[in-house]
Amino acid sequence: MASTASAFSKFSEETFDPKDWINSALRCKDPQQGVDAHASTLVMKLQMIIQEVNNALEETSLQAVQSLPRVLHDVEAVRQEAQLLREQMQIVKDDIRKVEEETHQSMKHLLQLDSIKCRMQDAKAALEQAGKWSSHVSEMDSVFSSQPPQVVADKLAAMHQSLEVLRDVSDYQERVTLLDSYSNRLEAQLSTPLLEAFNSHSLDLARDYADMFTKIGRSAQLQSYYIRCHKVSMLQWWTSIQERLAVETEKDRTDITQWLAEYYDELLSVWHTEVVWCHQVLPSPCSVLCELLSQALSSLHPSLESCVSRAVQSASDTEALPQLIAIREVTLRFSKQLEKSLASVCDKDAGGIQELADTIHRPCLQYQLDYEESEKKFLLATLDTVRLNVVGEMDTIRWIADSVPKVFDASERALQHCVSFTSAFGVAGLLQALEVFFDQYCSRVQSVIDTVRANVGLDSISTTSSDQKADSAAAAT
Questions:
Q1: pLDDT tens per residue, range 42-65
Q2: Exposure string (b/e) for 127-146, b if CB count within 10 Å is 16 or more?
């Protein structure tokens, strides 16, 4: 029976083919049974299966019909519940709208009362602050004489708050002047120990003094004291370098790039040391340090510009431009190291960064703008070292041929100068300098060639040939 069910299960397949099924069924007959008998057996089995399917379908249909009233009842119950829920939601919505309409004026009144209360409290605080001004003024002399600076700073901060309230009074400017005099008095009292704290890098003391200066509105003066303190040491380093150079002999004199790199290394050392310390003390550490370096570089004596100028003037025309390039490379190395540190500890919009960058690159700026003239001097001085005219015509021709690679080597070096010294923005000046250079070279070569032609008699032969051509033409005429 199982095999029969398996055979008849193929009727449910989507790819069922009657012919294939009949041929397969006939091939599976008993050899002792005839084809007709086997076919009759298959037909009988098919009829039995059809009867079973019909019975199953009729039973399933009967069950569905019997369960339909119950399903309809359940659907109706769900519909009624949904209608009831919709009605309740509408009732709640109407209640909310009613509450809003009834309480709108009340809430508006409460908000007005709260606003009035806040204004009255502000007015009360303002009056209290204004009333404290007179008591603060009367106490200041005794506070200065008997209290520590921290208490004095707190009193001055309270006076600042009172003064904000009294901004519209008639004697406001006199009150500002009086408060400034008290602040100046405290600043003068704190200036010496503040500088000592900066010099000794006493973190706790420096924080206390910075807090006092901030309370009395003297943050700018605090930064000025810090810059003044450390700028002195930076100028002393520069002075010591210049004094050392003054006693050096001409033979042992240190190149400018060496002592300039030494000074820049000192500045970087100060930067890395102070940037960590300043972040714990000053409100704007990066801006302060940038201003410190800018002021130090701008206050050098002699200035960096004059040192660079002296180095260039003392160099020959073939050495001046390479000297400038070496100075710029030292400057760029210092600038990039500083930029890397700035990116790691400072915000991009910190003040003073652009001013510091301008100050660092200022010594070479004018020479970069005059790059064309510097390159011309270098190329023409290099051309003067190229020998073209020697004794003997054949040697002269050979020297001219040997000069060609030298000339193009000089032009290649000029291109490298342009990239290294101006970052290629001076390419227009380079073209002008190369034009002058090659014009001079061609002019000198032509002059040597003319001399050689005259020495070997080529000019006289050329002249005779021209005269003969002229005579022949006259005779033919």
A1: 788 888 888 888 888 888 888 888
A2: eebeebbeebeeebeebbee
